[in-house]
Write a structure and sequence with these properties.
Layout lengths: L2 E6 L5 H15 L3 E6 L5 H4 L4 E5 L13 H9 L6 E8 L5 H12 L3 E2 L4 E4 L4 H16 L1
Parallel strand pairs: 1-2, 1-3, 3-4, 4-5, 4-6
Helix pairs in contact: 1-5
């Protein structure tokens, strides 16, 4: 059974809601999945998993959160070759540039990007939570 790590940073709780719903979907599909706040996992520990599901909201001028998540991802980025990676995050403005840039970074690293990154505007409503659960189910089945 493949091991999945869902690693996220959340400032307002929106991306955390997404992470928990993705976890619920992956577990319901039979995956061995674990949830981590970015500050609670090392790059070395993350690399022990078969699939990485990374979550970060859009910040500032559509960038990854710069104090905790960006340094973690920068350290991880050079070690992603051949890894299966999925991306998700919430946003409140813009058109998803942060996600497109992040996807490009993942693909450039040699990782296998799972679908397009999942984006939810603001706080996930019931439909958004269902979309996140379905994303988790698809990740578990990939």
């Amino acid at each position: 059974m493949k091991k999945i790590a869902i690693i996220y940073w959340s400032g307002t709780g929106n991306t955390e809601i997404m992470a928990e719903a993705i976890l619920a979907g992956a577990l319901s599909a039979g995956a061995e999945a674990s949830l981590y706040k970015v500050e609670d996992i090392s790059v070395e520990k993350a690399l022990e998993f078969d699939q990485l599901v990374l979550g970060c909201p859009s910040m500032g001028a559509e960038v990854l959160e710069e104090i905790d998540f960006e340094p973690f991802f920068t350290s991880l980025e050079g070690k992603l070759s051949g890894k299966n990676v999925a991306l998700f995050g919430s946003y409140g403005w813009g058109d998803g540039e942060w996600m497109r840039d992040w996807q490009t970074r993942v693909e450039t690293s040699g990782a296998k990007l799972f679908e397009e990154g999942l984006m939810i505007n603001e706080t996930p409503d019931d439909e958004g939570v269902s979309i996140c659960k379905a994303f988790g189910e698809r990740i578990a089945s990939a």
